[in-house]
Amino acid sequence: MDLTRRSFLKAAAATAAMSTVVGCGTQKAATEQLTFGTEQTEVDKWVRATCRFCGTGCGVMVGVRNGKVVANKGDVESPVNRGLNCVKGYYVSRILYGKNRLTKPLIRKEGKLVESSWEEALDLVALKYKESIEKNGKDSVGMYASGQMYIWEGYAAAKLFKAGIGTNNLDPNARYCMAGAVTGFMTTFNKDEPFGCYEDIEHADVIILWGNNMAETHPVLFSRVTDHKISKPQTRLIDIATRKTRSTEVADTHLEFIPGTDLAVLNGIANVLITENLVNEDFVSKHFNFKKGLENIGYGLEDKFKFADVASPLTYEDYKAFIAKYTPEYVEKISGVPADKIRELGHLFGDPKKNVLSFWTMGFNQHVRGTWANNLCYNIHFLSKQLGRPGATAFSLTGQPSACGTAREVGTFAHRLPADMVVNNPEHRAFAAKIWNVPVDRISPNVGLHALEMLRAVDYGKIKVLWIMCTNPYQSSPKLARYRKAAEDRKAFIIVSDGYPTRTTELADVVFPSAMWVEKEGMYGNAERRTQHLGKATVPPGEAKDDLWQIIQIANRLGYGDMLFPYPAAKTYDGQRAETGESELKKALWEEYRQFTVNHGKDLAHYEDYMGKTGLIWPVVDGKETVRRYIEGVDPYVKKGMEMEFYGQPDGKAIIWARPYEPPAEVPDADYPFWLCTGRVLEHWHTGTMTRNIPELNNAMPNAYVEINEADAKTMGLKRGDKVKITSRRGSVVAPIEVNGRGNPPKGSVFVPFFDDQILINVVCIDAFDPISCQPDFKKCAVKIEKA
Fold first, then answer.
1. Which of the chain's termini has less CB crowding within 10 Å, N or C?
2. CB 697 within 8 A of CB 88
3. Measured between alpha carbons, how far is 296 from 276 in angstroms, rounded to an integer?
4. Which of 57, 89, 293, 399 is catalytic?
5. What 3-state class would DSSP assign to 402?
6. How far is CA 55 from CA 80, 269, 502, 508, in A?
7. CA–CA dist 781, 788 (Å, integer)
8. What is the C-alpha to C-alpha distance for residues 150 and 44, in angstroms, rounded to an integer?
9. How far apart are CA 490 and CA 473, in angstroms?
10. What crossing angle do the helices spanning 262-275 and 370-383 adopt, rounded to 10°?
11. In angstroms, rounded to a whole number, what is the distance separating the alpha carbons of residues 697 and 692?
């Protein structure tokens, strides 16, 4: 199928229009439109799975013929997408059959990666781990994991590193995308993940997108938003962002703010709620406490930076005094958002007859004050009682298919254990040690290195062996040149497990070829707390093997196999064929992991309960899922008579935080006069490892570009397609410009997507991060633009 970008976009627009007109509820039409292959494609069987891309968790039916995947279509029974898939989901099966699949282990010899046997590659990796642990200690090794790994892969990795080796140097790429959401939840509720569900879309009167280009990053959910607007025309969609996007085109209102000043806007709305008597004070008094944390907390720019968020209690009167200066007029001076619009937002939140739904993702999380942004959004929902009923909720969307299930719930973060437990809590360590059947002192009480700090540790020599699984940090990390050079200089022994060559595998000492998606059985956890099973539809090519098998093989060679994986199936499963114990092994791991969740408000169902189903939203108690949390009569953990109970906190009250506006780590100046923002586009997902191996998607969007305002382009004598050099204090790249395209930044700002492995925009990005979440800020740094 040979598509130009223009014809592809035209077809994609027609598909989007079709889905909007017929609505997600017209399942037959949506499914026929989005079937991969032809309507005449014959299959031997259909296997139920979940899409491999974003955290929406769309259901996919995978068609198999003669053992090969030949078709896919939207799952009409899925409550997530109701038969609809986006353009990436339309082509998801193609990720299995790119020309560049890795099919044999590779070892670097004399500077080049050459084919080897699995035995040789596994033995070498185990030897490097043993040597480093013996010479430099347990904390000299680590793993950079992924929110794309299946749940039991993340669980097995946690067991290997935290209960076997005894280091907490295990952190996922979710640190780059969802850590701010996690710390926002934990500091507010002391429980992670959203309290609402996707169904809230159909009950909302006002939907607010906070720095969130939902049309391109979560298109199926956006189709539900647009369908809801059509069926209920009085619904307001408000786009609050730093640039105009495809989402803006559908919005009723677009409010543009100066990068980083969303903190001031959120406080401004709280100010309106308080000063204009729109606060439900009885509700606030009953269900919330007030706190204030440290201010001027830094930007995480020093390699050995350490931070602890110390909080002090406030009264409601103290909070009102704190928020008093954030008048709409004051906020307008900081943010550029008109004072009357801030008042309007306050009145929309404060209207008890309206249900207000907030959506956000990287705009809040990839922010040097990302935790604060999450906190402040919850504040305005709490003050106005915009929660606890359908359509009134604050919802953090997720970027990866199992960033929730595999990173957050399983505990592959450097500070966590499963089910919101943490390594520096002795009771939590004891609980984990009992389930894992290991001495408690095997689990280190010391928080490990977070993802960015792990790459820094390679540079300054603390990490000697690093295993990177199912992710591409040597393309996706900020201040990229520094970390690539450390790898190029062989400062650490690097192992990479992946399905395709990437800018990370090219730096590896060993490459493990991995089975992908439905080449293995799996479980994912999506953004609405829905856990879903993925059936195995085919076998991986060549000698590619399941990541779980790889983890167990290394555990065996390090002497931890019998202790950590004492299941007969762990010895028989060969990483490829299901008949050699795959399901038995994964069921055993699931049921063991499930013990962490039961009676902790994270309850997962038994393994069999997910088979052939469209998923269950946890906590699952007595066989029933919980679609909305913390609400009496809906959430089984809420005691009778409480109305609402935030049971993660000792007194059942969530926190309203006094958090100030503070500026970004770097702002434009005379030398670097432009703001740079990075992000995703519709056709590609993250670093393009999979989507750039799908010809239709890659032909439609073959390279990254610099999105620039028309006035700036005119001043510089530039026209669409001209190449420019974009430079920061860290490095530069060259890319063509896009003027009046699908996105339109304001004067003085540019946007560049990061999927292109030949235009490494992250070389330019600053490696500042939120000191609470340790999540980098990919949305704000200063650059200059010159004609190339």
1. N
2. yes
3. 30
4. 399
5. coil
6. 11, 29, 22, 28
7. 21
8. 26
9. 16
10. 20
11. 7
Locate 91 and state its tokens.
């082509």
Mean pLDDT, residues 513-526 taken together: 97
From the list 86, 362, 470, 701, the catalytic residue is 362
**Does the annotation mark 61 as catalytic?**
no
Q: Among all chains, which residue has been given the structure tokens 């198999």? A: 64
Element containing residue 145 per DSSP (H, E): strand 141-145
State mean pLDDT over 755-772.
97
**For 562-615, what is each residue's pLDDT tens digit?**
999 999 999 999 998 877 789 999 999 999 999 999 999 999 999 999 998 999
Using an 8 Å Cβ cutoff, are 218 and 244 in contact? no
What secondary structure does DSSP assign to 52-102, as a single string? SSSTT--EEEEEEETTEEEEEEE-TT-TTTTT---HHHHTGGGGG--TT--
* HEC readout, 745-785: CCCCEEEEECCCCCCCHHHCCCCCECCCCCCECCCCEEEEE
Segment holding 473, helix H or strand E: helix 473-476
Residue 402, both tokens: 């199992």
Question: Is residue 223 classed as helix, strand or coil in its secondary structure?
Answer: helix
Give the integer Cα–Cα distance in Å for 561 and 159.
10
For the chain, the structural domain boundaries read: 5-96, 106-177+401-617, 200-397+654-658, 674-787
When computed from its CA atoms, the radius of gyration of the chain, rounded to whole angstroms, is 25
CATH for 5-96?
Answer: 2.20.25.90
For the record, the structure tokens of 313 come out as 């209690």
Determine whether 550 is an active site residue: no
Over residues 481-508, mean pLDDT: 98
Catalytic: 362?
Answer: yes
Residue 562, class by beta-carbon neighbours within 10 Å (0-12 exposed, 13-18 middle, 19+ buried)? exposed
Higher-scoring residue by pLDDT: 190, 579: 190
290 and 318 Cβ atoms separated by less than 8 Å: yes
3-class secondary structure, 259: coil
Query: What is 200-397+654-658's CATH number?
Result: 3.40.228.10
Q: Which CATH architecture has domain 106-177+401-617?
A: 3-Layer(aba) Sandwich (3.40)
DSSP at 416: B
Give the Cα separation of 451 and 457 in Å (integer).
10
Instruction: Look up 177 and say whether it is catalytic.
Output: yes
- Report the alpha-carbon distance of residue 449 to residue 413 in Å, rounded: 9
Choosing from 27, 400, 532, 550, the catalytic residue is 400
Tell me, yes or no, if 88 is annotated catalytic.
yes
Do 5-96 and 200-397+654-658 have matching folds? no
CA distance 25 to 30: 9
Burial of residue 407, with CB atoms counted within 10 A of its CB: 0-12 exposed, 13-18 middle, 19 or more buried:
buried
The Cα–Cα gap between 648 and 187 comes to 10
Q: Where are the alpha helices (DSSP H) in 637-694?
A: none
Q: For residue 691, name the pLDDT band (cuts at 50, 70, 90).
A: very high
- Classify domain 674-787 by CATH architecture: Beta Barrel (2.40)
How many other CB atoms are found less than 10 A from the CB of residue 730? 18
Neighbours of 307 (CB within 10 A): 13
Task: State residue 301's pLDDT score.
Answer: 85
Name the pLDDT band for 226 (thresholds 50, 70, 90): very high
